[in-house]
Write the structure tokens for this entry.
Amino acid sequence: MKILKSAIVSNSDIIKNYKTHRDRAEELGKIFVFKNNQLDAVLFSISEYERVSDILEAIESLTETEIKALLYLVQKRSFMSAIPTDSGTTAESR
């Protein structure tokens, strides 16, 4: 997982400056809260939460076999070529 330096905040700082960090989460999508130099929490903007929530709901509707196939494609980075385009073809078939 890659974390932008600008998206890191200490636990004590988020307590003192919550509104500032909430605004930053809106700008960046999410910020990472560290406590004792360990990742402790993630603050999502509502738009990022809704995006991630939609993805999780879609994954939860899959069978175990479909999830394994999806993970395989993601790991191989070949999933983009299987996504249909607006014209009905896949990137792979063009």
User: Anything to note?
Assistant: Helices lie at 11-16, 18-28, 46-60, 64-76. The chain has four helices and three strands. The mean pLDDT is 86. Residues 46-60 form the longest helix (15 residues).
